[in-house]
From TrEMBL:
Its cofactor is Zn(2+). Keywords: Metal-binding, Prenyltransferase, Repeat, Transferase, Zinc. Binds 1 zinc ion per subunit. This is Geranylgeranyl transferase type-2 subunit beta. It catalyses: geranylgeranyl diphosphate + L-cysteinyl-[protein] = S-geranylgeranyl-L-cysteinyl-[protein] + diphosphate. GO terms for biological process: endoplasmic reticulum to Golgi vesicle-mediated transport; protein localization to membrane; protein targeting to membrane.
Length: 318
C-alpha cells in the first residue's frame, strides 16, 4: 500500500479553510495544538508553505495572554500544552522574536511558576499534574534557551519517581505504565541529558511488547493498537537506540491501512474517522522508520530534525 502524500496535504490544508466547521476542525480547546500538529505534518511532507505563515503567526499571537502563557484559542486561559504548541510553531517559522524579550520573560515566568516543590508541573493554574506537563514545560524552556539547574534537576527527580519496575513510566508516582508517559518521561530525560539514568534494556523490552499481531502498537498490555502509539513507542525506542525491537514492515502496513484514500488523513485504526492528531503521529512514525522519503523527525521534540537543531542543548556551555 502507498502513502497518499498529496491527499494528506489537501486534508490538512482543508482543516484551515473550514475554520468555522467543527466537523472538520478540532474543537476550539485544541485549536493551537491542532495547528502545531498540522504544521508539523506538512513539514514532514515537505509542504510547510501550504499554510500561510503570517496568518498562522497572527493566530498564535492572538492566543497570547497577559500572564505570558498561551491559551488554545483567543480569550482562553493559558495552559502549558498550548504554550508549547505556540513556541514550536514560532520555532518552525524562525519567528520567536515576535514575542519580544519582555514577552519571553513573562512566558518563562509563566512556565516556571507552575513547577511544584516535588519537581512536577501543573498544566495550568487549576492544578492538574501529569508527567506530560513536565515534558511540555521542559521542552518550552529549551526552545526559549532558558533551562536552569534549579528547574531541570527537580524535574528529573520527579520523572525518575514515576519509573515502574516493569520498565515503563506512569503519569504520577505509582501510576500504571503507559506508552505515552514513557515518551514524555524519556523525552524529558533526553532534553535534560540524563538518559544514562534509564535501564534501557528493561524499558526497551516493555516498549517492544507493545507491537501486536496486526503490526500496530498499543499503549498498555492487552489494549487495541492505535496509530498514535507509532509515535509514542517508536520515539521512545529511538531515544534509547532500540528501534530494532519493532518489526518496521508490519507497523508500516498498519499505519498505511489507517489512511482514508478519498479524503486524505490517517485514523487511529483501519476504517475509523481520520483526524489531524493521528495524521501527524502516523507520519512521524513512518518518518522515524525512514519510509516514504519523509522529512526526518527528531524523536526528542517531535519537530523536523532541522528545526530541532535550532534548540540549544542542555547543559549550556557558558
Ligand atoms: Zn490514538
Amino acid at each position: 500500500m502507498a502513502l497518499y502524500k498529496e491527499k494528506h496535504i489537501e486534508y490538512i490544508v482543508s482543516l484551515d479553510t473550514h475554520v468555522k466547521d467543527y466537523q472538520y476542525w478540532l474543537s476550539e480547546h485544541l485549536r493551537l495544538n491542532g495547528t502545531y500538529w498540522g504544521l508539523t505534518a506538512l513539514s514532514l511532507l515537505d509542504s510547510k508553505d501550504s499554510f500561510k505563515k503570517q496568518d498562522v503567526i497572527d493566530f498564535v499571537l492572538s492566543c497570547y495572554n497577559e500572564d505570558g502563557g498561551f491559551g488554545a484559542f483567543k480569550n482562553h486561559d493559558s495552559h502549558l500544552l498550548s504554550t508549547l504548541s505556540a513556541l514550536q510553531i514560532l520555532l518552525i517559522y524562525d519567528s520567536l522574536d515576535v514575542l519580544t524579550d519582555q514577552g519571553i520573560e513573562k512566558t518563562v515566568k509563566f512556565i516556571t511558576d507552575l513547577q511544584l516543590p516535588n519537581g512536577a508541573f501543573q498544566g495550568d493554574r487549576f492544578g492538574e499534574v501529569d508527567t506530560r506537563f513536565v515534558y511540555t514545560a521542559i521542552q518550552s524552556l529549551a526552545i526559549l534557551g532558558r533551562l536552569s539547574s534549579k528547574v531541570v534537576d527537580k524535574a528529573v527527580e520527579f520523572i525518575l519517581s514515576c519509573a515502574n519496575f516493569d520498565g515503563g513510566f506512569g503519569l504520577a508516582p505509582g501510576a500504571e505504565s503507559h506508552s505515552a508517559q514513557v515518551f514524555t518521561c524519556l523525552g524529558t530525560l533526553a532534553i535534560a541529558d540524563k538518559l544514562d539514568l534509564v535501564d534501557v534494556e528493561l524499558t526497551g523490552w516493555w516498549l517492544s511488547e507493545r507491537q501486536v499481531e496486526n503490526g500496530g502498537l498499543n499503549g498498555r498490555p492487552s489494549k487495541l493498537p492505535d496509530v498514535c502509539y507509532s509515535w509514542w513507542v517508536l520515539s521512545s525506542l529511538a531515544l534509547i537506540n532500540k528501534l530494532g525491537y519493532i518489526d518496521f514492515a508490519k507497523l508500516r502496513e498498519f499505519i498505511l491501512s489507517c489512511q482514508d484514500e478519498v479524503t486524505g488523513g490517517i485514523s487511529d485504526r483501519p476504517g475509523n474517522q481520520v483526524d489531524v492528531f493521528h495524521t501527524i503521529f502516523g507520519l512521524a512514525g513512518l518518518s522515524l522508520m525512514g519510509y516514504e522519503n519523509l522529512v526526518p523527525v527528531d524523536p526528542m521534540y517531535c519537530l523536523p530534525v532541522e528545526v530541532g537543531k535550532k534548540i540549544k542543548k542542555w547543559p549550556y556551555k557558558e
